[in-house]
Please model this.
Amino acid sequence: MNLINKNRSNNSYIIKIYVGIKMKILKYYRDESKFSIMVETFEDLWTLERIIFKGDLVKTKSLRRYKPNETDVGELKDVIIEVNVEKTELDKNASRLRVLGKIVYGKPMDYISLNSHHTLNIAPGDKLEITKSEWDQYIIDLLERSVKESRRPKLGIVLVDDEKAISAKILGYGIEFGNEIYNNLSKNLSSKEYDEYQTKFFNKIIDLINNMGVNKVVLGGPGFTKDNIKAYIDNSVDKKVNNVEIILKNVSNTEKSGVYELIKNDEIKKLMEDELIRSEFSLMEEFLKGLTSGSSKYKIENVNEAIDNYEADTILVNDDLIDELDIKNLLNKAEQYRINIKIFNSLDEAGQQLKAFGGIASIFVLNKNNT
Model:
């Protein structure tokens, strides 16, 4: 899917971004190497955090404390500020992206001090402009992929046993784990008290499922608790799940490792075949297999050599490395050689596996028919 439509009359591109069922339009000014975006979701912030690099220019509305004199406490003023980026920080709890840098432009100028440091706090609903010296194609590809991911139904996972439950959501940017819920059962409880505690626990699970904001939930676990919860949901008059398909699945434990075990299951693969996290695991499996034959390479110097020798079909790289100069040079060369580039979430298990190999690797299919 090509999201960039050229408009030669005004030297700009229009990038159409779909979020959910809504269409967002980003305008890319070719001559100025700049585009604007309206932030809609936390996933948008996560994508922006990956593509805004040190030295980029970011402009948006902000609040600036204006002090007429040094002794004045000052008051917050609405301003428009553009900063030369020094670093970015994604605050997951506050659902905002902090962009820190020196002010290079602003208005009204009465409230702006050029070259002073400022932090832009970008949240859903904000509009911003990003200017780069050059937009590399792999960055545009990352934007295009984030568009596709934002349209996919999200999958929820709830793992339960007789003691606790753990939840996770498969999002466009990876796995997001929720808080654990405990049953608080005790051997000293009477039969009536036991039933009451169990019912409270089951109701908490139902509330959790209803608040996940997903269309499908895999309810898994090592024993029969998951089956009992599903039966309780089916037979309960008062407690129901709201338009959520529940799929039962056996899993060996109710820890984070159980979630990763589940998403590698063949049956669940079919539900997640288009999900980013599944793709990352598949690519890592292909990379690991290639280590035996020597067709897979890792670390920047070896991947560079594989590219030069035409022995790389796909480059795997963690998102926390793509703003480093030597990595950028490698990725630009890979683009010239028409090599696929897959950017991993460095916080997920697959990204952590890739980190153990230097954060960058290449895959080469030995038995393919080259033309």
